[in-house]
Amino acid sequence: MNTTNLQGKIAFITGGARGIGLETARGLARLGATVVIGARNPEKAYGAADQLRKEGLQAVSIPFDVTAHRDHEEAYRYFEDNFSRLDILINNAGVLLDQESISVQTVNRTSILSSKNLRDTFEVNFFSLIELTQTLLPLIRRSEGGRIVNLSSVLGSLAVQADPSSPYYPIKTFAYNASKAALNAFTIHLAAELKDTNIKVNSVHPGWVRTELGGQYADMDEAAGAETSILLASITKDGPTGGFFHKDTTVPW
To answer: In its keyword annotation, does this UniProt entry include Ion transport (predicted)?
Structure first.
């Protein structure tokens, strides 16, 4: 994939105060973008942005809870009032409620999964993400080359989940996996809707990353986990849309 400098671009990263989100913000800012970090904890969001500013990067923060519809409207007003547009949306915020972290030996008992767990997972990983994207889309349409990057997971790949030879086959965290599969469907449909525009929409698998979600045994650090999001956010106008990627490799749906 060909990438471009992001000088002058405005990027919004949800869940950007730590982990993959913070490293994505750092990477986009290094390419020239002004990054806006959104996080539920205002102090952590400000601290993350301040950390990037001390590195000589352009970063600001706003309080943002992806499940709070009020915050969606506040985010719209913030970008409208300060920039009149949004160039890059990184839908990074997400939860794994099936257990504390992912283990390569995980097989959850789907038959007794609580409906609350399932609904809460979908609220963060799917419904709220769609509603935020719908709210901000008019601003993204004003960009010369809008980019929407949805943080999915290889665990959301139905092909991988159905393949007993896959190393990911045993990881049956149903609520999380199903929410990411649904998110992938949203990527496909939104990309098709926007195919005649300058907006590109893609899902990314960051890899198995050492975060609170990924756990301590993961094989990638947070900076490596941000590489795919940065890549898809900075692709040129001839880049892909409606795809599912890990770095420059296509992940099966």
So the answer is: no
